């Protein structure tokens, strides 16, 4: 049985650390978001992070919640 993940901890880690904090809840999601942060961050001079950070937070919390459901 997989270990339960705290959605509150996933939220806090992702808010503070961004995609690195997503490693707690989803490794695949953390890699995808880290690549997007880097590529789009460079192309938009950092402005893409304004959109990407809330997406990372939602994805991290959702992944922890989904793992607890299964």
Fill in the keyword field for this structure.
0% strand; mainly alpha; 3 helices; 70 residues; single chain
The percent range for helix content is over 70%
Mean pLDDT: 95
Largest β-sheet summary = none
DSSP, total strands: 0
Q: Kindly estimate the percentage of residues that lie in beta strands according to DSSP.
A: under 5%
State the distance separating the first and last CA atoms. Answer: 9 Å
How many structural domains in the coordinates? Answer: 1
Structural class of the helices, strands and pairings? mainly alpha
Supply the number of helical segments: 3
Q: Helix and strand succession?
A: HHH
Shape: elongated
Rg is 12 Å
Give the uncertain stretches in residue-range form: none
Topology of this structure?
Layout: H1 7-17, H2 27-43, H3 49-69
Task: Characterise this structure.
Helix 1 packs antiparallel against helix 3 and helix 2 packs antiparallel against helix 3. Helix content is 70%, strand content 0%. The mean pLDDT is 95. It has helices spanning 7-17, 27-43, 49-69. It has one domain (18-69). The chain has 70 residues and is an all-alpha fold.
Could you give a short description of this structure?
By secondary structure, this protein is mainly alpha-helical.
